Amino acid sequence: MAGFNKVVGSYEEAMAGLSDNMTVIAGGFGLCGIPENLINQIKKMGTTGLTVVSNNCGIDGFGLGVLLEDRQIKKMVASYVGENKMFEDQLLSGELEVELTPQGTLAEKMRAGGAGIPAFYTATGYGTPVGEGKEVREFNGRPYILEESVTGDFAIVKAWKADRYGNLVYRHTAQNFNPGAATAGKITVVEVEEIVEPGELEPSQIHTPGIFVDRVILGTFEKRIEQRTVRTA
Q1: Residue 62 belongs to some domain of the structure
Q2: Quick count: other Cβ atoms within 10 Å of Cβ 171?
Q3: Which residue range is the domain that position 29 belongs to?
Q4: Which of 75, 85, 122, 202 is most buried (most C-beta within 10 Å)?
Q5: pTM, whole model, 2 decimals?
Protein backbone atom coordinates (compact mmCIF):
# COMPACT_ATOMS: atom_id res chain seq x y z
CA MET A 1 0.00 0.00 0.00
CA ALA A 2 1.55 3.28 -1.08
CA GLY A 3 0.30 6.85 -1.35
CA PHE A 4 -3.38 7.00 -2.23
CA ASN A 5 -3.49 3.29 -3.05
CA LYS A 6 -5.38 1.67 -0.16
CA VAL A 7 -5.37 -1.89 -1.52
CA VAL A 8 -3.67 -4.62 0.52
CA GLY A 9 -2.94 -8.15 -0.63
CA SER A 10 -3.66 -10.28 2.43
CA TYR A 11 -5.97 -10.42 5.42
CA GLU A 12 -2.91 -10.45 7.67
CA GLU A 13 -1.93 -7.08 6.26
CA ALA A 14 -5.52 -5.84 6.40
CA MET A 15 -5.80 -6.42 10.17
CA ALA A 16 -2.21 -5.63 11.11
CA GLY A 17 -2.04 -3.66 14.35
CA LEU A 18 -5.12 -5.14 16.00
CA SER A 19 -4.23 -6.20 19.53
CA ASP A 20 -5.88 -7.37 22.74
CA ASN A 21 -8.37 -5.12 24.54
CA MET A 22 -9.08 -2.90 21.53
CA THR A 23 -12.51 -1.68 20.40
CA VAL A 24 -13.76 -2.90 17.02
CA ILE A 25 -16.77 -1.38 15.25
CA ALA A 26 -18.29 -3.78 12.74
CA GLY A 27 -20.74 -3.03 9.94
CA GLY A 28 -23.54 -5.32 8.89
CA PHE A 29 -27.05 -6.25 9.98
CA GLY A 30 -27.69 -9.87 10.89
CA LEU A 31 -25.72 -11.64 8.16
CA CYS A 32 -26.37 -8.92 5.56
CA GLY A 33 -23.33 -6.92 4.54
CA ILE A 34 -21.03 -8.31 7.21
CA PRO A 35 -17.22 -8.27 6.80
CA GLU A 36 -17.09 -12.04 7.28
CA ASN A 37 -13.49 -12.60 6.19
CA LEU A 38 -12.14 -9.80 8.36
CA ILE A 39 -14.01 -11.36 11.28
CA ASN A 40 -12.45 -14.73 10.46
CA GLN A 41 -9.02 -13.09 10.43
CA ILE A 42 -9.63 -11.74 13.94
CA LYS A 43 -10.54 -15.27 15.02
CA LYS A 44 -7.37 -16.61 13.39
CA MET A 45 -5.27 -13.98 15.19
CA GLY A 46 -6.68 -15.05 18.55
CA THR A 47 -7.04 -11.45 19.72
CA THR A 48 -8.87 -11.32 23.07
CA GLY A 49 -10.48 -8.84 25.46
CA LEU A 50 -12.21 -7.08 22.58
CA THR A 51 -15.07 -4.63 22.84
CA VAL A 52 -17.17 -5.09 19.71
CA VAL A 53 -19.78 -2.55 18.59
CA SER A 54 -22.21 -3.89 16.03
CA ASN A 55 -25.94 -4.17 15.47
CA ASN A 56 -25.83 -7.79 16.66
CA CYS A 57 -23.34 -10.62 17.08
CA GLY A 58 -24.00 -12.80 14.06
CA ILE A 59 -25.18 -16.37 14.64
CA ASP A 60 -23.62 -19.47 16.10
CA GLY A 61 -20.69 -20.43 13.89
CA PHE A 62 -20.85 -17.50 11.48
CA GLY A 63 -20.17 -13.77 11.48
CA LEU A 64 -19.21 -12.22 14.79
CA GLY A 65 -20.55 -15.34 16.47
CA VAL A 66 -17.27 -17.13 15.73
CA LEU A 67 -15.45 -14.73 18.07
CA LEU A 68 -17.59 -15.91 20.98
CA GLU A 69 -16.37 -19.49 20.58
CA ASP A 70 -12.93 -18.76 22.03
CA ARG A 71 -14.17 -15.97 24.32
CA GLN A 72 -12.42 -13.28 22.26
CA ILE A 73 -15.12 -10.70 22.97
CA LYS A 74 -15.14 -9.17 26.45
CA LYS A 75 -17.94 -6.66 25.84
CA MET A 76 -20.61 -6.49 23.17
CA VAL A 77 -22.47 -3.25 22.35
CA ALA A 78 -25.45 -4.24 20.22
CA SER A 79 -29.14 -3.73 19.53
CA TYR A 80 -30.33 -7.29 20.03
CA VAL A 81 -29.24 -10.83 20.79
CA GLY A 82 -31.01 -12.44 17.85
CA GLU A 83 -30.82 -16.20 17.32
CA ASN A 84 -27.27 -16.58 18.61
CA LYS A 85 -27.51 -19.19 21.38
CA MET A 86 -23.90 -18.72 22.49
CA PHE A 87 -24.43 -14.97 22.78
CA GLU A 88 -27.51 -15.60 24.91
CA ASP A 89 -25.74 -18.13 27.15
CA GLN A 90 -22.70 -15.91 27.75
CA LEU A 91 -24.95 -12.93 28.46
CA LEU A 92 -27.13 -14.79 30.97
CA SER A 93 -24.15 -16.36 32.72
CA GLY A 94 -22.47 -12.97 33.15
CA GLU A 95 -19.45 -14.19 31.19
CA LEU A 96 -19.99 -11.56 28.48
CA GLU A 97 -20.65 -7.92 29.28
CA VAL A 98 -23.47 -6.67 27.04
CA GLU A 99 -24.71 -3.13 26.50
CA LEU A 100 -28.02 -3.34 24.65
CA THR A 101 -28.70 -0.09 22.80
CA PRO A 102 -31.75 0.95 20.75
CA GLN A 103 -30.99 0.45 17.08
CA GLY A 104 -31.41 4.07 16.00
CA THR A 105 -29.37 5.26 18.95
CA LEU A 106 -26.58 2.85 18.04
CA ALA A 107 -26.57 4.10 14.44
CA GLU A 108 -26.40 7.69 15.69
CA LYS A 109 -23.60 6.80 18.15
CA MET A 110 -21.50 5.65 15.18
CA ARG A 111 -22.43 8.61 13.00
CA ALA A 112 -21.75 11.10 15.78
CA GLY A 113 -18.44 9.44 16.61
CA GLY A 114 -17.35 9.70 13.00
CA ALA A 115 -18.41 13.36 12.89
CA GLY A 116 -16.43 14.23 16.02
CA ILE A 117 -19.54 14.80 18.12
CA PRO A 118 -18.90 13.43 21.64
CA ALA A 119 -22.53 13.03 22.73
CA PHE A 120 -26.12 13.86 21.83
CA TYR A 121 -29.58 13.98 23.40
CA THR A 122 -32.34 11.57 22.36
CA ALA A 123 -35.82 10.82 23.66
CA THR A 124 -35.36 7.14 22.89
CA GLY A 125 -34.92 5.09 26.03
CA TYR A 126 -36.07 7.72 28.51
CA GLY A 127 -37.97 6.12 31.40
CA THR A 128 -36.61 2.64 30.59
CA PRO A 129 -33.55 0.71 31.81
CA VAL A 130 -31.69 2.18 28.80
CA GLY A 131 -31.86 5.61 30.39
CA GLU A 132 -30.86 4.63 33.92
CA GLY A 133 -27.95 6.67 35.25
CA LYS A 134 -27.84 8.96 32.22
CA GLU A 135 -28.14 12.73 32.25
CA VAL A 136 -31.65 14.01 31.48
CA ARG A 137 -32.56 17.39 30.01
CA GLU A 138 -35.87 18.78 28.92
CA PHE A 139 -36.39 20.41 25.51
CA ASN A 140 -39.77 21.94 24.63
CA GLY A 141 -41.35 20.09 27.51
CA ARG A 142 -40.03 16.67 26.55
CA PRO A 143 -37.29 14.81 28.47
CA TYR A 144 -34.21 13.54 26.63
CA ILE A 145 -31.29 11.42 27.79
CA LEU A 146 -27.63 12.06 26.95
CA GLU A 147 -25.96 9.33 24.91
CA GLU A 148 -22.22 9.25 24.26
CA SER A 149 -20.97 8.57 20.74
CA VAL A 150 -18.71 5.62 19.91
CA THR A 151 -15.39 5.33 18.12
CA GLY A 152 -13.15 2.32 17.69
CA ASP A 153 -9.51 1.44 17.32
CA PHE A 154 -10.58 -0.49 14.22
CA ALA A 155 -13.68 -0.39 12.03
CA ILE A 156 -14.34 -3.40 9.80
CA VAL A 157 -16.70 -2.87 6.89
CA LYS A 158 -18.15 -4.73 3.90
CA ALA A 159 -18.80 -2.85 0.64
CA TRP A 160 -19.80 -3.87 -2.87
CA LYS A 161 -17.25 -1.89 -4.88
CA ALA A 162 -14.22 0.23 -4.12
CA ASP A 163 -11.58 1.96 -6.16
CA ARG A 164 -7.91 1.90 -5.19
CA TYR A 165 -8.35 5.22 -3.39
CA GLY A 166 -10.87 3.66 -1.00
CA ASN A 167 -14.06 5.26 -2.30
CA LEU A 168 -16.90 2.86 -1.52
CA VAL A 169 -20.27 1.86 -2.94
CA TYR A 170 -22.61 -0.42 -0.96
CA ARG A 171 -25.25 -2.63 -2.53
CA HIS A 172 -28.88 -2.15 -1.53
CA THR A 173 -29.67 -3.18 2.08
CA ALA A 174 -26.07 -4.25 2.65
CA GLN A 175 -25.46 -0.54 3.16
CA ASN A 176 -27.11 -0.79 6.64
CA PHE A 177 -24.60 0.04 9.43
CA ASN A 178 -21.55 0.00 7.18
CA PRO A 179 -21.34 3.75 6.29
CA GLY A 180 -21.55 4.75 9.95
CA ALA A 181 -19.02 2.18 11.03
CA ALA A 182 -16.62 3.25 8.27
CA THR A 183 -16.32 6.77 9.68
CA ALA A 184 -15.93 5.79 13.34
CA GLY A 185 -12.67 3.83 13.33
CA LYS A 186 -9.15 5.13 13.84
CA ILE A 187 -8.21 2.47 11.26
CA THR A 188 -10.96 1.50 8.82
CA VAL A 189 -10.56 -1.75 6.90
CA VAL A 190 -12.95 -2.64 4.09
CA GLU A 191 -13.44 -5.87 2.20
CA VAL A 192 -15.18 -5.64 -1.14
CA GLU A 193 -16.53 -7.76 -3.95
CA GLU A 194 -14.87 -5.72 -6.69
CA ILE A 195 -12.01 -3.22 -6.97
CA VAL A 196 -12.06 -0.78 -9.88
CA GLU A 197 -9.74 1.92 -11.11
CA PRO A 198 -10.13 5.54 -9.91
CA GLY A 199 -12.66 7.32 -12.09
CA GLU A 200 -14.76 4.22 -12.78
CA LEU A 201 -17.15 4.92 -9.91
CA GLU A 202 -19.71 7.62 -10.60
CA PRO A 203 -18.90 10.35 -8.03
CA SER A 204 -22.57 10.92 -7.19
CA GLN A 205 -22.97 7.21 -6.38
CA ILE A 206 -20.14 6.98 -3.82
CA HIS A 207 -21.49 6.33 -0.33
CA THR A 208 -18.24 6.54 1.68
CA PRO A 209 -15.40 8.79 0.47
CA GLY A 210 -11.93 7.28 0.52
CA ILE A 211 -10.74 9.81 3.11
CA PHE A 212 -12.35 7.60 5.78
CA VAL A 213 -10.75 4.36 4.52
CA ASP A 214 -7.28 3.09 5.36
CA ARG A 215 -7.18 -0.39 3.82
CA VAL A 216 -9.14 -2.22 1.12
CA ILE A 217 -9.00 -5.93 0.36
CA LEU A 218 -10.74 -7.98 -2.33
CA GLY A 219 -12.68 -10.89 -0.86
CA THR A 220 -15.00 -13.74 -1.73
CA PHE A 221 -18.18 -14.17 0.27
CA GLU A 222 -20.54 -16.94 1.30
CA LYS A 223 -23.61 -14.67 1.54
CA ARG A 224 -25.37 -17.06 3.87
CA ILE A 225 -29.11 -16.63 4.52
CA GLU A 226 -29.78 -16.18 8.23
CA GLN A 227 -33.18 -17.84 8.24
CA ARG A 228 -34.84 -19.40 5.22
CA THR A 229 -38.62 -19.61 5.21
CA VAL A 230 -40.38 -21.53 2.44
CA ARG A 231 -44.03 -22.13 1.70
CA THR A 232 -45.28 -25.64 2.46
CA ALA A 233 -46.49 -27.65 -0.51
Answers
A1: yes
A2: 14
A3: 11-119+148-218
A4: 122
A5: 0.93
